[in-house]
Amino acid sequence: MNHFGKTLLGALFALSCVAPVQAAEDTLMMATTTSTQDSGLLEYLVPTFKKETGIELKWVAVGTGKALEISKNCDADVLLVHAPDVEKKFIEDGYGIDRRQIMYNDFVIVGPKADPAKIAGKTTAEALKAIYDAKAGFVSRGDKSGTHSAELALWKKSNLNPDKESFYISAGQGMMATLAIAAEKGAYALTDRGTWIKYDNKQGDANPLAIVVEGDSALFNQYSVITTNPALCPNVKSNLAGQFEDWWVKPETQKLIEDYKLEGKQLFFPNADK
């Protein structure tokens, strides 16, 4: 092989080594909640994010509690979660920085269409008391997710502790699986509206569950983005994380969130400017 051939071969080899490194540098790891995936929101938004930023976004969808643990272990660059009180403690403890709210939806209580505990039209506190008194089945996610945290807070505000009651079932699973268990057992459950719409649309007329309590201010459900603290995790891609957060709060992305609908129903409501 002549000198030119050797030089070209060496250059191609160098490029083959550099290209994967460059690709890795432009890949951002996110830990997020099951609701952002189950609702179809990520599938809808991520291609636009990559097109506009050139950043490849990879993610794992788990409960908020698990997502925060992943970040603490330096295994995620950014978070998209929905448990404000837990998130604020996470920030105070130094694990995350630059928390920005981006959107909200709400929680709803769903249950058998026959509504055995007769909770339709009640406030959240009244509904939980009625479920407790009637010993009606209730399926909890039981997974330290944002939804699970919100559910526990609602029971506490109602001065009730169903944890050791036989009617209270801890699924230890994501929202879709929890709804499936509630449907199978004819029980109530707390769910974010986005995942409920996706689940209800999938089940159609075969769905034995329906929304029975909604619209209470106690059921507000805020989502935020957070960057893992690079001071604790030096390998965090803070520059890409900053671009990620900026992208979520910009008006064009907020409009995309607003426009995302399923069966004509809006799943999330942008509020980055609030």
Keywords:
274 residues, alpha/beta, ten-stranded mixed β-sheet, two-stranded antiparallel sheet, 11 helices, 46% helix, Substrate-binding domain-containing protein, signal
Layout: helices, strands, pairs:
Layout: H1 3-25, E1 27-33, H2 34-38, H3 41-53, E2 56-62, H4 64-72, E3 78-81, H5 84-92, E4 96-112, H6 124-134, E5 138-140, H7 146-157, E6 168-170, H8 175-185, E7 188-192, H9 193-203, E8 209-213, E9 220-228, H10 238-249, H11 251-259, E10 261-262, E11 265-266, E12 269-270
Walk me through this protein's architecture.
With 274 residues, the protein is an alpha/beta fold. 46% of the residues lie in helices and 24% in strands. It has helices at residues 3-25, 34-38, 41-53, 64-72, 84-92, 124-134, 146-157, 175-185, 193-203, 238-249, 251-259, and strands at 27-33, 56-62, 78-81, 96-112, 138-140, 168-170, 188-192, 209-213, 220-228, 261-262, 265-266, 269-270. The strands form two sheets. Strands 1, 2, 3, 4, 5, 6, 7, 8, 9 and 12 form a ten-stranded mixed beta sheet that branches. A two-stranded antiparallel sheet has the order 10-11. Strand 10 and strand 11 (265-266) form a beta hairpin. The longest helix is centred in the N-terminal third of the chain and has 23 residues, at 3-25. The radius of gyration is 22 Å and the shape is globular. Mean pLDDT is 90; it is low at 2-23.
